[in-house]
Amino acid sequence: MNPSLDWDKLGRYLAGEASPDEAAEIRRWLEQHPDEAKRIVAMNEAIGGLEPQAGLDVETALASVKTRMRSPAPSPTAGSASRWGRRVGSLEAWAAAAAVLIVAGIALWRGRDGRKAIVSEVPTAVHSTAVGERRTVRLEDGTEIMLGPASRISARGRDVVLAGEAFFRVVHDGARPFTVHAGQAVIRDVGTVFSVHDDGDSHVRVVVSEGAVQLSDVRDSVLLSRGDVGLLQGGRLTVERGTATAEDLAWTTGKLVFRDAAIEEVSADLKRWYGVELRVTDSALLRRHFTGSFSSESTNRVLDVLALALGARAERHGDTVYIRGSASSR
What we know:
The chain folds into three domains: 7-121, no CATH class; 124-247, Jelly Rolls (Sandwich), CATH 2.60.120.1440; 255-329, Phage tail protein beta-alpha-beta fold, CATH 3.55.50.30. 35% of the residues lie in helices and 30% in strands. It has eight helices and 19 strands. The strands form four sheets. The chain has a seven-stranded mixed beta sheet with strand order 1-4-5-7-8-11-12. The longest helix is centred in the first third of the chain and has 41 residues, at 81-121. Residues 48-56, 78-91 and 100-120 have low confidence and may be disordered.
């Protein structure tokens, strides 16, 4: 782990007591050192279930760890260079891990007692939007959430369950992590701004605008930094590093954008935005993808554009739309 990290600032950051400048500095460091950030997240989570030890002098312990990390290592004897290199690496990793545990322990010591009481006393708050509606809600901790159309969140303290799509601007609190549950995915804040898209069909997409988040499912876990996109689909967790663009958050301004989107994804979004349900009767059409964008177009106009792009025809019966292959597309 990079010794240039200021452990005192990290301790204040984890405790939720860092100044805005310090918090920004730590977030930049986390983004630039994703492997180290992942270890910090894991250690901070692991220590969350521990009780603080009475009489623990965390400041003295932290100073001791810092001293060990900065002390020069003894020179290896001849013939033992490779073995010594491995040992030095393990010692550095141990020292770094110990330092993380201590600074996380500071946050735990300051916030543990209050956390249980706060969580148990906070009632569940439910917020939802109608088809085509977007709305911003503010939680008691100051976190802002913009809900996409036909979306719903159930929030209990800093624990949120999402169905649909939402954009989160989280107020960081090291003693109380902010967690979002969407389908089989769990997204944990590391002080950040991010969006989550859950189409209700085992497909969850996370886009990070600032800071970092930990994206997990029942088997895997990955750290996402600014500009990263995390995908959980079909039980598989993948990451696209640095691929996020402004189009990924265009929905927050009322613009629906598709980039090489599968028909299942298009269908889920059109249902939330326009209240129509697509039924595709041609298996060949289901294998196609669609690229396009809509802002203030009428439902019929959107369906016409989609059918034209797919080389198909759209037949609307109330809120149900049948997409059928045309003779020329077969």
